[in-house]
Design a protein that fits this description.
Elements (H helix, E strand, L loop, with lengths): L1 H8 L12 H9 L6 E4 L2 E4 L10 E3 L19 E2 L9 E5 L3 H12 L9 E6 L11 H5 L4 H4 L3 H4 L6 E4 L2 E6 L3 H4 L9 E5 L3 E5 L1 E4 L3 E3 L7 H4 E3 L3 H17 L7 E6 L3 H14 L3 E7 L10 H13 L3 E4 L1 E12 L2 E10 L6 E6 L1 E4 L3 E3 L3 E2 L16 E2 L5 E2 L2 E6 L4 E2 L12 H19 L13 E7 L2 E6 L7 E2 H15 L3 H33 L1
Parallel strand pairs: 4-10, 5-6, 5-11, 6-7, 11-25, 13-20, 14-15, 14-20, 15-16, 23-26
Antiparallel strand pairs: 1-2, 2-3, 3-22, 8-9, 9-10, 12-21, 17-18, 18-19, 24-25, 27-28, 28-29
Keywords: FAD, Flavoprotein, NADP, Oxidoreductase
Catalytic activity: demethylphylloquinone + NADPH + H(+) = demethylphylloquinol + NADP(+)
Enzyme class: oxidoreductase
Amino acid sequence: MAHLSAAAASLSASAAIPPFNRTIVQLGKLFHGSSLLKFHSNSLFFSSTPRSRQLRLVSSAIEGRNLGSNEVSQEEAMTPYSWPDKKRPRVCILGGGFGGLYTALRLDSLTWPDDKKPQVILVDQSERFVFKPMLYELLTGEVDAWEIAPRFSDLLVNTAVQFLKDRVKILSPCDHLGMNGPTTVSGSGGSVQLESGLVIEYDWLVLSLGAEPKLDVIPGAVEFAFPFSTLNDACKVNEKLTKLERENFGKKNPIRVVVVGLGYSGVELAATVSERLEGKGVVQAISVDSSILPNAPSGNKEAALKVLNTRNVELLLGYFVRRISSIEKVNDHEKVMVEVQANEKGAKSQVLEADLVLWTVGNKPLLPELEPNGWPFELPVTGRGQAETDETLQVKGHPRIFAVGDSSALRDSKGKVLPATAQVAFQQADFAGWNIWAAINNRPLLPFRFQNLGEMMILGRNDAAITPSFIEGLTLEGPIGHTARKLAYLIRLPTDEHRVKVGISWLAKSAVDSIATVQSNITKVLSGS
């Protein structure tokens, strides 16, 4: 799967965020000596004072760079982004995941009065959109990287949406309800400063920043566990598995894989990896819960259990991981030790030896956390780092800012925050695009209502489970479920052009697989006779 390595090299992790107002620069010169921005240990700290109206933010926006505690000059050279039209509304979308990209496409597809069609710019630190629910198929070879991770430039070529590959630095909104009075169509909603020094002034802002795996919860997870959240993660896991398969070829010692977490991601990984190893390895899966998929429909849970048992996946239910550490390193291959303990009081810990540890437990939204400072320009944020929104998806107190996907903490009628799933982000993108249209055209905004259409999961190369919510008691599993899931995701791909290309590619692969299966069956019959 060389194409995975090539794709990984061209990718960065996923969208981080924050922006800036030109008035800040002047105030920075006026009040020289008061630090506007500090970097601390891979985190961004944005100081907030009444003079600068800056947010004090904490974000792990920059990966893999140790910035120490260097001061960034307030007088750093910045270039204002030049919008093509000075009169039409300006919409800036931060983050190109499901929520961000689909909001941009929704805005472009709507019918607008000539003078009110907004100029839309989409900012993401990666050049590719990643269809995350299909990352597992990269491990089985069912899909190519380009099919589920197309470039933004290709997806947006037939739209008026502009794409900018950059990282976000500072967010400076100026639309607080208590300060500016009622929002009007004209007038800036704030500005965004990018890492490159570009400053984008916007009328409407959409936060769609995604989330990243939370590995720093136990000792050793950051150093020795592999997350599975981005295209880059999937490529690394595939490369590791390929290397283990090559090194263990012809040897009796099995490849040992430990999967931490048995929610959807953990179950899908355990099923996919166990099928790929086909008796050449041992897969152990750990969950602190007493059952797999605790919140899934019973049909999906039963289908998953059946597959995992058939493939001899060892389930450690009611266990938690205490630490992960290195045992030995031989020929650039590091064996690790996973120490687990049962939930019961007084239970002794156990040690699992592993060649590969896959981590699927927990994530943290990339929306920066806010430190309380009493200044009314703060964004209301939950303990998980998500922006609190009202039912129209507007951030509370900020009528010019919408938040969708992992960035949004929208509560249902029972006060429970909606799950951070692709299905929720798809639907929120439609509403966010429509509500921006309504706000620009002085129409009433629509309240978002999530419609659960059901749940899907992959369980192997020709195996999946689908439980639609609109047919009680029905679960499609096996090859039928696999085909239905693939068709559902084909329909959900971002653009018509990309759907056609991917559909043709999948049909060609299916035809080749069918011919190979027929030839194999004929060979078996002939050899048997």
